[in-house]
Amino acid sequence: MTDDTLVIPQPTTIGESAYQKIRSDIVFGRLLPGRKLKLERLKADYGASISTLREILNRLHSERLVVAEGQKGFEVAPVSIANLREIAALRQLLECRALEQSFRAGDMEWEGRVVAAHHRLARMEERMADGDRSHTEEWKRYDWQFHQALISACGSKMLIDNHAAVFDKYLRYQMIALSYRGEIAANEHALLLESALARDAARACEVLTRHVAGGVEHALATGTIS
To answer: Per-residue b/e over 103-129, b at no fewer than 16 CB within 10 Å?
Structure first.
């Protein structure tokens, strides 16, 4: 995964490390929507210089995870129902396109990645179903890894990177809403695995459409997104 996504390479500089940490804190809801991003506080929390932090916040602004307030500074991007629906529709569009290409091109190594990613996710979903919510971030990382494995053979780095960036924004809403759909989502993941091994892209896109729409409605049902 690229620097803009959940699986993060080892940072080579203090600035890159701070960027990755701030971005992760936004995506995983530790920095909540609307929070003011004061440079002195960020300097203490993330160990980067003021000038480096300005560069980081401008970078995150270009990713629409941070908004600029003119001369007042920066804050974490707000959330809205309309924005969630837009992000979900874009995720569905990109992922269905990538699934079709990946299913056509995938080889045995691709199948192995998909099966292994699903196994990790399914085990974590079992723990979540048993009431253990102490590993929520790990669960969502496994969720991302499974969906990324499904499209990993599509042959387009641009498509994979764009999907990953949109997936992160979709994930942010799920983390803010603490949205977990339990057995329904687990069953949909199992159907996606079956479709991948059968190379049935049409069925996979049908399941994915239901999966994403269900995630949106479940997140909205929590009442935490207005």
So the answer is: beebeeebbebbeebbebbeebbeebe
- What pTM was estimated for this model as a whole? 0.86
- Among the listed residues 45, 16, 10, the one whose alpha carbon sits nearest the alpha carbon of residue 31: 45
66 phi, psi to nearest 5 deg: -135, 145
Which residues have CB under 8 Å from 12's CB, separation 6+?
A: none
**Architecture of the 14-76 domain:** Orthogonal Bundle (1.10)
pLDDT in tens, 183-201: 999 999 999 999 999 999 9
Encoded amino acid at 221, one letter:
A
Contact 18, 56 (CB under 8 A): yes
Query: Which top CATH class is 81-221?
Result: mainly alpha
